[in-house]
Write a structure and sequence with these properties.
The chain has 15 helices and 18 strands. The chain is 41% helix and 26% strand. By secondary structure, the protein is of the alpha/beta class. A 7-stranded mixed beta sheet has the order 5-4-13-14-15-12-16, sandwiched between helices. Strands 7-2-1-11-18-17 form a 6-stranded mixed beta sheet. Strands 8-9-10 form a 3-stranded antiparallel beta sheet. It has a domain of 232 residues: FAD/NAD(P)-binding domain, CATH 3.50.50.60. This is FAD-dependent monooxygenase.
C-alpha cells in the first residue's frame, strides 16, 4: 500500500511511523519549508503515551522531555498565590507523563522515521482528486498518486478544505486567542527555574518555562469575541499583554518578529464524517479538541496508531469506519469537557480568580491529586491498550 500523508506535524509524523512500520510506502508532504520551531510546552500522557511506546519512540521522547517541579500562579509582583506539584500528578499516572515542547515531540517522531519515508518540505497540497482506485495529490508542481491520502495538516487543514468544504462549516470558535514564542533572557530564566509560571490575572495571562539551552518559552492566551487573527502578531501581543506586571513587559520586549511567533485562535473541529472515498483525516484536522481540553498531541499520536492498525487489517473503507468508531467518542468527550470548562479556563472576574486558586491548592491534597489526574486522563487512556489486548486475544 502507498500512502500520502499531508502534514509533517505530530500527527502526520506519527501516521508515517506507524504505516511504514507496517510495511507501507509513505510520502509525507509538508507546506512549511523546514521543521517548525514555534510551539509551546505540552503535557504528554494518556493514549498518545501508550501509542508512542508501541511505536518505539517513547525513550527518545523521555530524553527530550523537561523536568517541571510545579505549576505556579504568580501575582503582578511575582508572588506565588497558588501552586500544584507536577511530580504528584506524574506519580498518580504511574510516571506515564512528561512535559515536552511541541517541536521536540516532532523531532523525536521525525528522527524515528526510517530513510525509506519520502519526507518533502515546501510541498503544500493544492489539489486532491479521488480517482476511484487511487487518489491523486498535487503539491505545487509535484503530483503524487497513492492508495490513501491522510490529511494530518492541523486545524486549518488544506485537505479538509479541498475534499470536505470550507473551515467555517466545521470550526467552532471558543472565544480565545493563543500565542507562543521562544526568547533568550538569563534573568527570566533564573527566576523561573524548574517551574511553569503563569500570571494570576483576569481575561489574559502569560506563562513561562525555562528551557535547557538557557532560552525561555512563553505561552499566552486571552479572551476575545473576534476570531480574526491580527496581521502583526508581535504588535498584537505587546498591545494585549502590555498591561500585565511581573516579568511580562520584559518578555514582550524580547518577543521575536511575527514570523517566529505561533499565534492562532482557540477552536475545535466538529465534522459529521472523518473520511470520504480514499481520503481520511487525522488529529486536529478532523477532531481538534482545543488548547482548553489539552491532549491534542496525545490524541493525534493515538489516532495515528489506531488508523494504522485498521489499515493493516481491513479494507480501506472498513478501516476508515472502524478508526472513526474507536476515536470519535474519545475526541468528543474531550471536546465536551473543553466547552464546559471554557469559562473557568481563564478567569473573567476576581471571584473566578479566587476559585481557580482554591482549586489549585486543593489539587495538592493526597486523595484529590489522584482524582484530578484520573479526570485529566479521561477515557482516552485505554484506547491503544484495549486495541492491543484485543489483537492479542485474536492471535491466541
Amino acid at each position: 500500500m502507498k500512502v500520502a500523508v499531508c502534514g509533517a506535524g505530530i500527527t502526520g509524523l506519527a501516521v508515517a511511523n506507524k504505516l511504514v512500520g507496517d510495511g507501507a510506502e509513505v510520502v509525507v508532504l509538508e507546506r512549511a519549508p523546514a521543521p517548525r520551531e514555534q510551539g509551546y510546552m505540552i503535557d504528554f500522557f494518556g493514549a498518545g503515551f501508550d501509542a508512542a511506546e508501541e511505536l518505539g519512540v517513547l525513550p527518545r521522547i523521555r530524553e527530550l522531555a523537561y523536568r517541571v517541579d510545579e505549576a505556579s500562579l504568580l501575582d503582578e509582583q511575582g508572588r506565588r498565590r497558588a501552586s500544584a506539584r507536577y511530580t504528584t500528578f506524574a506519580r498518580a499516572m504511574r510516571d506515564r507523563l512528561c512535559g515536552i515542547m511541541r517541536p521536540d515531540l516532532e523531532q523525536a517522531l521525525r528522527e524515528h522515521l526510517p530513510p525509506t519515508v519520502d519526507l518533502r518540505f515546501g510541498a503544500g497540497v493544492t489539489a486532491v482528486e479521488d480517482l476511484g482506485d487511487r487518489v491523486q495529490v498535487t503539491a505545487g508542481d509535484q503530483v503524487v498518486e497513492a492508495d490513501v491520502l491522510v490529511g494530518a495538516d492541523g486545524i486549518h487543514s488544506a485537505v479538509r478544505r479541498l475534499v470536505f468544504g470550507e473551515d467555517g462549516e466545521f470550526l467552532r470558535y471558543l472565544g480565545f486567542h493563543t500565542a507562543a514564542f521562544v526568547f533568550t533572557d538569563p534573568e527570566i530564566h533564573h527566576a523561573i527555574g524548574d517551574r511553569f509560571c503563569l500570571t494570576d490575572t483576569i481575561g489574559r495571562q502569560m506563562g513561562f518555562y525555562g528551557l535547557r539551552d538557557g532560552r525561555v518559552a512563553a505561552f499566552a492566551v486571552h479572551r476575545t469575541g473576534d476570531p480574526r487573527l491580527p496581521g502583526d502578531t508581535r504588535a498584537a501581543l505587546r498591545q494585549e499583554y502590555g498591561s500585565l506586571g511581573w516579568l511580562v513587559p520584559r518578555a514582550l520586549r524580547r518577543c521575536p518578529p511575527s514570523e517566529a511567533v505561533y499565534y492562532d485562535q482557540v477552536a475545535q473541529i466538529v465534522m459529521p464524517s472523518w473520511s470520504r472515498g480514499r481520503v481520511v483525516l487525522a488529529g486536529d484536522a478532523c477532531s481538534a479538541v482545543s488548547l482548553i481540553a489539552g491532549q491534542g498531541a496525545s490524541l493525534g499520536v493515538a489516532g495515528a496508531f489506531v488508523l494504522g492498525e485498521q489499515l493493516q487489517n481491513r479494507s480501506i473503507t472498513e478501516a476508515f469506519t472502524e478508526y472513526e468508531r474507536l476515536m470519535r467518542p474519545v475526541a468528543e468527550e474531550k471536546q465536551a469537557v473543553a466547552r464546559r470548562s471554557a469559562r473557568w479556563f481563564l478567569p473573567e472576574s476576581p471571584l473566578q480568580l479566587g476559585i481557580r486558586r482554591a482549586a489549585l491548592r486543593l489539587s495538592r491534597l493526597p486523595v484529590l491529586d489522584r482524582y484530578v489526574a484520573a479526570v485529566l486522563a479521561g477515557k482516552s487512556t485505554a484506547v491503544v491498550t484495549n486495541l492491543r489486548r484485543s489483537a492479542a486475544e485474536v492471535a491466541r
